Structures are given as C-alpha cells and as structure tokens.
Amino acid sequence: MGNLKLITSMRFLMLGGQGNWGHQRRSRKRGCFWEESGNDYAALVRELGGLRSRADGARSREEAFDGHMAIGRVLYDHQLFKEALVSFKRACELQPVDVRPHFRAGNSFYVLGRYKEAKEEFLLALEAAEAGGNQWGYLLPQIYVNLGIALEGEGMVLSACEYYREAAILCPTHFRALKLLGSALFGVGEYKAAVKALEEAIFIKPDYADAHCDLASALHAMAEDEKAIEVFQKAIDLKPGHVDALYNLGGLYMDLGRFQRASEMYTRVLAVWPNHWRAQLNKAVSLLGAGETEEAKKALKEALKLTNRVELHDAISHLKQIQKKKVKGNGGANGEGVVIVEPSKFKTVNEKTTLRQDLANALQIRMFQRITRLSRCDVELLKKEMSEHDVPLSYSGGGVPEKSIRKPNLEEILRRLLNFLKPETFQGAVKAINERILSILDETGSGRVDLGMIYAILAPICSGNPDKRKRVAFDALLWRPVNEGGSQIKRADAVHYIKLLRAIYIPSHGVSEMLEVHGEEDSSTVSFKEFLVMFDDPDWGFSIMSTLVKLESGDRNRHGNCVCSVCRYPVIGSRFKEIKSHFSLCNQCYSEGKVSSAFKQDEYKFKEYGSEAEAMKDKCTCLPLQSRNDR
C-alpha cells in the first residue's frame, strides 16, 4: 500500500502538482523502511525507471527539471535517499545554475553520511545563490547552516562556525543558526563567545531545550556551576527526557562532589536510554563516591553487560582491590591513607632519575600529545606542508610581514596532518590546539595566526627523531618572512619562540617569562648549532623535551607484577623506587608527590627504573601485584 501511495504521489506531482520546491518541508512519512530485496522495492524501481523516462521525454528542459525535482522530493520524504539523490543529480545536470537541486542533493548526501560530497553540493548551491542575486536570498541562510552542518560532519568545526555566523548575520532571527554557532564555539573551547550566541538563540526562542543544554555546558566550562545547574534544570523542565541535559548535569554534580544527585541523574538517563553504557559506568562511579560500594559494584557489572571495554574490567578489579584493602585494615601500605609530600623532600639518587616537577610537566605535554594525536604525526609532514603550500604575505599591526592565516584555514592544514583521525576525534584535537596554542598566539582575538610559528610550536611534540624535530622547528622559523633568505634566524626571534614554547607547554613557568628579557635582544643571527644550545638550555630552553621523549618510548613498559604503593595500579612506564623503604611509585603518583602514610620519613630518595630488566640488574624488589584469586 505504501508503494502504491508513493507512485501515485510522484505521478500527481509530475502532472503539475509539485508546488514550490524551493521551500524546505519536513517529511510526513518518517519511519518508513524499505527492504531492498523485497518485491515492493523491486516494483518501485521498475516504476521509477518509467517515471524518469517520462520526465526526460518532457517537451522542454524546464519541464524535465520540474519532473525530476518532484520525483526526488517524494523519494526523499519517504527516506529513499539514494534514489532521491539520483533524481536531484539529474536535475543538477538539467539546470546547473539552479540552487535547489544542489541544495537537495547536499541534504541527501548528508543523510547518507557522505559529508564531503554534501559539502561540495552546498558550496555549488552557495555559488549559484550568490550569482543569482536576490532571487535566492530566502534560501541563503539555510544553505550556510547546512554547509556548516556538513563541515561538522567532517570534523571541521572552526570552518563550520564561519558559515553559522554568516547565516546569523543574514537572518538575525535564525535561532537555529545561533544555537549551532554557540554549540560549535563550545566545541572548540571558545566558551564566552558560545555563551553569547546561545543566549541570543534562547532570547529568540525561549523554549529551545537544546540551546539551554549547551548553554549550561558552556557555563560549567567557565566554572559558573550554580548558574549551569539552573539552566540544565530549565532544559529538563522543557523536555523531561532530554538525555544530554540529564547526562551532563550528572557530570556537573560529580565534579562538585554531589555524588548522590549525580547517581539520580544517571538513573534518569538509563530510564530513557537503557543501553547507555557510559551513564551506567558513571552511575557506578558516583555511587562509589557516595559510599554505596555494593550498589556501585552492581552498576559496574551492568555496564560490563552493555560493553566489553577493557577499562571496565580494570575498574571492577580495582574496586575489588579497594574493598579488600578496607576489609583487611591491617596497617602498612594496604591499610593507610595517602599524604602529599612537599617537593623539597623528594630527592633523586642520580642525574638519571627525573625530577618530580619535570615529570609533572612532561606528563601534561604527553597528555596533550594523546588528545591531539600529534605524537602519531610524523614531523616530516610539517616540512612537506612548508615546501608544497605557500602562503601569501600579510602585515601585522606593527608592519611586520607574516605568513598568517585564518583559523579555519589552519584547520584544513591540521586535517591533512591528522587525516587518520575520525571526525569526532579530530574535533577534540582541534579544541585542544585552539585552547592551548591558538589562544596564546592570537591574544588579540583577530582570528589569524602566524603559520610559521605554528609549525615551530608543533614540531617538538610530533613523532620522529628528537634531532629531526628540532631541525624542523628551526626550518619553520627560517620559513617565516622575518628570517627568510638565509641559513640563520634572528636571535630575537629564536628567544621569542622558546618563550612561546615554554608559555604553551610549561604554563607554570612560561607565562611570566613572556614579559621578561634575558640578555639584550639585538639584530644578530644564530645558526642551527647555536639554536640547539638555546633550545636545550636547562634554565631558559625546552630541555624538558628529553623527559618527554623518555615518556614516549617507555609509557607502555610494564614492570612485571609490580604495583604502585599509592594507587595500587600496575606500574606502567617508569618506576620510582624509594631506596630506604623500598616502596615503588608510578609516574603519576611520583609527579604528584603522593606517598602512603605508612612510610613517613623526613625525606625520600628515589631511583628511576625504565624497565623490569633494569630493576632486575639492580636486584630491585617491590610490592607484588595481587593475584585474581586474592581480589
């Protein structure tokens, strides 16, 4: 019956009932499902072929165009997107400068998950609309919005922001464009701008639950937690089953230590979406925080039924170990608490043992590498970008020539460098880079950044031989117009670069140094050899890179059955053994200065072991990992 209605609808439209196809209409047939191997679908395809032939045989090109557009729209409304796409593409061939078939084809590509092709069709629609003058003015904002959505599908959120902003400028009452702009700005870490856009969307449409949810998330990111709770609650009042609002409010309560309220939010999420394993896992964590250990264990097991992820197995094992520790209560490392020791009491046995603060800084950089996946990006790719893609000169406020580009253009370069990432992972990488690097390089908020300096900043944390990374950083500085034309860079530029490097990657030291001058900044130049001396300087350089490289090469090393005496997790990476009390700490606990209160000493001396083999040579022993039967 559905097939007959569909054919009848298309026949009617081809006979002149197609109406105005420029306006976007919502489907009234959502929920239809077509089995491609079924008889109904086969009959539809046969009938469709006949209808398309009739359309192509129309008396004029305009009538043929109208016929294919009519067929495509009915197919789209019945969720036959691939078939609709064929009709819209045929209409594009018949009228290449008409906006509507490109727009419809873009929508079809997007629904099919073909975001790149959707973007290309929307760009063609945009080009046609801009060439057509006022004729297509009513459709321009929606083209901008849909183009932004397609770009987000590719992970290009900074680029999407540009088009959402254009839509909002063309149509100031377009609340959806404002909401999407706010959400995208939140996604790249620009929280103040996100709040402004989302508040404007809510002002226009007060009952917009999604906008309330994203506004609350942005407020939470800005540490305005009480206000965020109110806004989350407003979103839930507007839409009681709003999963994102409930889930994110649960996370906010967790951050505030209000574990009972958090578990209630996750319970409500599971009532709407029973298979939400992350909500089930977070419910377990919140119950554990609330002291309800048995309920937490049940929730963890439920999460394990929903997904077999390895971290859940580790969480259950760790929970059992904590319970066993509490039950024993027998003193020693198993029954005591944890104390934070001041840095001056943490000593090293030799120069090979990493200093506590250096390790803490290097771990932060390593975390940034993991979030951005730059540790999987070969530094040679930066050199390739510099040699293959030239950038026009621009001039800063001081008249200094630069190869600067807008952030959306930088995003395209990052996409080439990180082309192995899925769109959602790439979004997270761009957000981290925007928050940590671009926020410092673009202090004035101009939206432009010095590309040569970007390459130089990224080079030390990409993959590749450490010496090669330093060479590419030097070449990136040499590539900048201020140094171009020789084999040396200005000393002042090298000093400025290293200060930026420290300000970005070692904030606890670097920010104050940006305003300091060490030695006279003259017009002299430095060679690569002299640059290396500056780079590796332990006081004013970036010597922490050696610690970072050590983490990169050893962060998968396991030390047999050895566990950290504080966190009780297996030691992975370097192990720090206290030579008097013979307990061991993992990277993280050592960097944070955590020690079990069972080992109270005036000072602690540590020796670092990179692998189990090193420890065996030194006849080192440590606390053994409990067997599964003991847990």
Automatic annotation (TrEMBL):
Keyword set, alphabetical order: TPR repeat
Presence of keyword Ribonucleoprotein: no
InterPro entries: EF-hand-dom_pair (IPR011992), TPR-like_helical_dom_sf (IPR011990), TPR_rpt (IPR019734)
Superkingdom as given in the UniProt entry: Eukaryota
TPR repeats: 175-208, 209-242, 243-276
PANTHER family: EF HAND FAMILY PROTEIN, PUTATIVE, EXPRESSED-RELATED (PTHR45081:SF1)
Protein name: TPR repeat-containing protein
Annotated source species: Salix suchowensis
